[in-house]
Amino acid sequence: MGQDRFDKGLALRKQVLGADYVEKSMASADDFSRPMQELSTEYCWGYVWTRPGLQLRERSLINLSMISALNRPHELKLHVKAALNNGLTREEIREVLLQVAVYCGVPAGIDSTRIAREAFAELDAAAAAAGAK
Q: The pTM is what?
């Protein structure tokens, strides 16, 4: 693995997904799962996400639709939160999921909408807790 690409990927991954999430993922990796963490950090984040051809918000739009179509709920919830970090609004996310429903099937759209609402609720609860401090 290219250390420079890995380092750039790790920095962007933390920016988009949140440092706490990424650090926890990296720290909990064992001998079996560590290569997958390294691969996704270098290749996905360090090679593709850092390319100049698309803005982060555009990459998030694409990811939301693909992950919804692939029925990957854990990744979808993570990327809904990331999309907000990348400047998408909740309304834009809703529009992506409506389009998913048309092109990938209403069940995919309904499930993805439910997962997005869970992500929003988690973020709202965290913001309320932080505001109470």
A: 0.91
